Amino acid sequence: MPYRNRSLLSVFVVFSCIALGFSQEILTVEETVKLALKNNYEIIIASNDLKIDEYGVSPGLAGMLPSVEASISDNNSIQNLSQTRLDGTVAEQDNAKNNSLNYGVALDWTLFDGFGMFANYEQLKENKKLGDAELKQVILSTVGDVMVTYYDLVQQQQQLTALDSTIQISKQRVELAQNRFTIGKASKLEVLNAQVDLNTDLTLMKRQKELYANTKIKLNQQLARDLDTDFKVAPEIFVDETLLLPDLETMVVNENPQLLAMEINKRIAELELKQIKAARYPNIYATTGYNFGKSESSLGFNTSSKSRGFSYGFGATLNLFDGFNQNRNEKIGKLDIENTEIEIAQQKQELLALLGSTYQTYLTNISLIELEGNNEAIAKENLDITVEKYRIGIIPTIEFRTAQLNYINAKVRFSNAKFQAKVSEIVLKQLAGNLSV
Fold first, then answer.
1. How far lies 244's CA from each of 17, 163, 247, 429, 432, in Å?
2. Where are the alpha helices (DSSP H) in 223-300?
């Protein structure tokens, strides 16, 4: 079979294997994100924390509702009694039985506490909002990590394809060198060099397969599923090149979950100050209840007695002096609010600075995609010409290997440029609080 036909057959076999691999079921990035939202441990924990905050939004927990308590007590005794009465007579009885039974229902209700209960109820609502923001932050962080790992696998899969292509070329080179040696047109050194380069490519392939397998384990771990689950990822990376910095800055200010959480914490600090100020007002409460009492005695003037009926009352307390603690606590509360305002301004500046630098990286990576894509095409054309020249024996081995390495490096750089651009896109959308697939 002529060499050109053998070469075409080899290329056809390589691409047939690749097509067969990609014909298998592919795990899309959308499916990956859905699995992460369903199974990831950190997301589940954050979701449960939010449910706890939701259960906490209750007027009863805020102290706005009355408390009702039922009680019962039954006391008994057996004693040897001796009583001396006013008239001088003495009454004695051994094993005298005494019994006292009391039961009833009591209601206590704080009617006014300086509006502290209302501030407390609003704080419980803010805690729920804080849980929402924290859950959103966990989701953004987890989904971002999962997507980066996913596209890292896409990049590694592309590198495996590139390495597989170069191995086929190296095998052809060994075969050519062996044929040239057989007919006396090349030295044994040329055959050995070709074999060494082939072994180098095979070693690189093994290392790349190891990295690919480890990254698949990492993604399975992030998806909280069987670590041995096998899958393939999409063959290509598509980058959103339409992101604009002004739009992203607006979303950071309005939707970033870290900023939202800090704004909520400021509101909570304001409500805590209201609760502190409530101590300046009187605390008014009401009590009522229904009680039943019964007592029996074997010895005494009254051998039994019973009582039943309602009880009710009102009360109020007012702090007149507590060692200036009230003033001190209010000043501390105001400083806490001031600190949260400063922290919000600081965090906003840090996020916008990070957004700006990441956006510049994003623009650079997008420009590198076009550059490296053109470079790959040039390297491929150069390799094709070099292979043909080597086949007819008009270029040395080192020039062939250089063209081969230039091609594989160009493919790797092109794949890496797309991956880095995608990572920049994911980070920008994370900062903007608007990461979706």
1. 41, 36, 6, 11, 11
2. 245-255, 257-277
**pLDDT single digits (tens) 309-339:** 898 999 999 988 888 999 999 999 999 999 9
Q: What is the mean pLDDT of residues 190-215?
A: 93
Determine contact, residues 106/286, Cβ cutoff 8 Å: no
User: How many Å apart are CA 78 and CA 261, to the nearest integer?
Assistant: 65
Bridge partners for 82 per DSSP: 92
Which residue type does 168 have? Q
Q: Is residue 90 part of a domain?
A: no
Q: What is the DSSP secondary-structure string of 121-149?
A: HHHHHHHHHHHHHHHHHHHHHHHHHHHHH
**Look-up of token digits 């990492």:** 218
Name the one residue in this structure whose structure tokens are 């995609």.
369
Task: Report, as an integer, the average pLDDT of 222-246.
Answer: 93
Taking 3-state DSSP, the helix, strand and coil percentages for the chain, each rounded to the nearest 5, stand at 65, 15, 15
User: For the residues 49-76, what does the mean pLDDT come to?
Assistant: 91
Pair 419, 237: CB distance under 8 Å: yes
The residue segments making up the domain with residue 377 are: 3-39+113-282+322-431
- Total domain count, the chain: 1
